[in-house]
């Protein structure tokens, strides 16, 4: 994203209108113009003048990244004064700031950015986050993003699991989201860890696991960034880390296995206690008879798109035939839709897959296909015992699924 968009987004997040923001930029232009054309010192500074620096609080990610700060000097009546300011930071090891107010990130830390004219000054807070360099991601390592909002446990199976909605952190630096769904998927982080444990128990190897620890009131990783992070730079960074770690994991899987499976783990509150497997196919799509399900237009919109191109069975069978994930689970005693016994939701509410399944499945390319798994609560994620019993069945189903469809023997 561009730096200016960050400035504007933070201004908006802090309650200033875009119009006010525009005014402050114009004022800075005036200051600049006055400085350039006159080339002399500031005229007399009224004792009641103030300096406002925007953005007031901002995050820069990555050494060398830049961001323009703007200073507005006003008198007591609020009128802009055509005065030029001098810029400084109190920790140049964290960030430098040039004479035009453009800050450059140096190293992880926090510094004040100060604009001074005569004896008055205004300040802003600048945090720099430089992600640690990782030469290679080794199985068993755990990597955290900034402030430990996002966790990546590196695995070695061709399976990537993400848990976007089970987090509980509510840091003050991220205001509550004001639109979109904020309901937490209770126990889905714990469930994801149970699935990881069950796969280790079954195969001796771990899947990749990516967890958002932020409560959904602060971040919804399963949405486009605008709705997910609502213009807060700290939430935006966590969103980028969440998806970045999934992409790292999928790169490792593709490198080591050629293909693999991504699972986005959720919890639903629908009336019917059954898993809802999301392939980006709607209830309307699934209500078609099998022969109408196996059509290229549905393959092309599915999160199993690349897998569908490599298997010998029909697309309909891949989605709800005897070796579909839904039917394998159903054979293990877990009710799921779509499956051979529940080919569609029967008109009941059904989650077909969200942003992450779209982005990290194979609809738009890549060799890692994806499935969103929405879990009901009773018997599946309500207690540790039930989570572990279900996870063992899912692990067994996934081992069979990867062998039959991907040719990967775990
Ligand atoms: Zn969810």
What does this 3D model show about the protein?
The protein has helices at residues 3-13, 18-38, 188-203, 225-229, 233-257, 283-286, 290-293, 296-300, 305-308, 315-320, 325-331, 355-360, 384-406; strands at 50-54, 57-61, 66-68, 70-74, 86-89, 95-97, 102-105, 109-117, 120-129, 142-144, 150-153, 159-163, 208-212, 260-267, 275-278, 336-337, 368-375. It has 410 residues and is of the alpha/beta class. The protein has 2 domains: 3-129, Immunoglobulin-like, CATH 2.60.40; 142-406, Zn-dependent exopeptidases (Aminopeptidase). Bound molecules: zinc ion. The site of zinc ion (ZN) has 3 residues, from loops.
- Binned strand content: 15-25%
Largest sheet: 8 strands, mixed
Major β-sheet strand ordering: 10-11-13-12-14-17-15-16
Oligomer status:
single chain
CATH fold-level assignment of the largest domain: Aminopeptidase
Provide the helix percentage: 25-40%
The parts where pLDDT drops under 50 for at least 5 residues are 1-40
Computed CA radius of gyration, to the nearest angstrom:
26 Å
Backbone shape: elongated
Give the number of DSSP strands.
17
Can you describe this structure in just a few lines?
The protein is α/β, with parallel strands linked by helices and 410 residues long.
């Amino acid at each position: 994203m561009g730096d200016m968009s960050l400035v504007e987004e933070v201004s908006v997040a802090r309650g200033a209108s875009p119009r006010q923001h525009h005014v402050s930029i114009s004022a800075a232009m005036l200051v600049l113009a006055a400085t350039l054309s006159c080339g002399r010192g500031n005229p007399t500074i009224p004792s009641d003048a103030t300096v406002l620096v925007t953005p007031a609080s901002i995050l820069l990610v990555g050494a060398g990244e830049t961001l323009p700060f703007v200073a507005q000097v006003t008198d007591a009546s609020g009128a802009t004064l055509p005065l030029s300011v001098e810029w400084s930071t109190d920790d140049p090891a964290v960030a430098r700031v040039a004479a035009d107010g453009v800050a450059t990130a140096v190293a992880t830390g926090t510094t004040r950015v100060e604009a001074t004219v005569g004896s008055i000054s205004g300040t802003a807070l600048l945090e720099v986050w430089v992600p640690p360099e990782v030469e290679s991601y080794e199985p068993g390592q755990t990597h955290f993003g900034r402030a430990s909002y996002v966790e990546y446990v590196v695995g070695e199976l061709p399976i990537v699991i993400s848990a976007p909605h089970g987090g509980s952190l509510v840091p003050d630096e991220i205001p509550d989201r004001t639109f979109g769904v904020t309901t937490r998927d209770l126990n889905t982080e714990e469930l994801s860890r149970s699935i990881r444990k069950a796969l280790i128990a079954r195969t001796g190897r771990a899947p990749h696991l990516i967890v958002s620890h932020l409560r959904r009131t602060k971040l919804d990783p399963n949405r486009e960034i605008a709705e997910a992070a609502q213009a807060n730079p700290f939430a935006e960074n966590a969103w980028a880390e969440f998806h970045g770690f999934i992409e790292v994991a999928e790169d490792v899987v593709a490198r080591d296995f050629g293909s693999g499976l991504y699972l986005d783990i959720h919890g639903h509150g629908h009336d019917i206690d059954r898993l809802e497997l999301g392939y980006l196919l709607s209830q309307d799509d699934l209500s078609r008879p099998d022969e109408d399900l196996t059509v290229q237009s549905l393959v092309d919109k599915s999160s199993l798109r690349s897998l569908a191109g490599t298997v010998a069975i029909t697309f309909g069978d891949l989605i709800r035939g005897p070796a579909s994930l839904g039917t394998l689970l159903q054979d293990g005693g877990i009710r799921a839709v779509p499956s051979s016994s529940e080919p569609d939701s029967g008109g009941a509410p059904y989650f077909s897959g969200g942003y992450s399944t779209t982005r990290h499945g194979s609809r738009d390319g890549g060799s890692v296909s994806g499935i969103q798994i929405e879990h009901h609560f009773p018997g599946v994620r309500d207690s540790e015992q039930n989570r572990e019993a279900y996870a063992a069945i899912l692990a067994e189903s996934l081992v069979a699924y990867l062998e039959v469809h991907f040719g990967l023997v775990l």
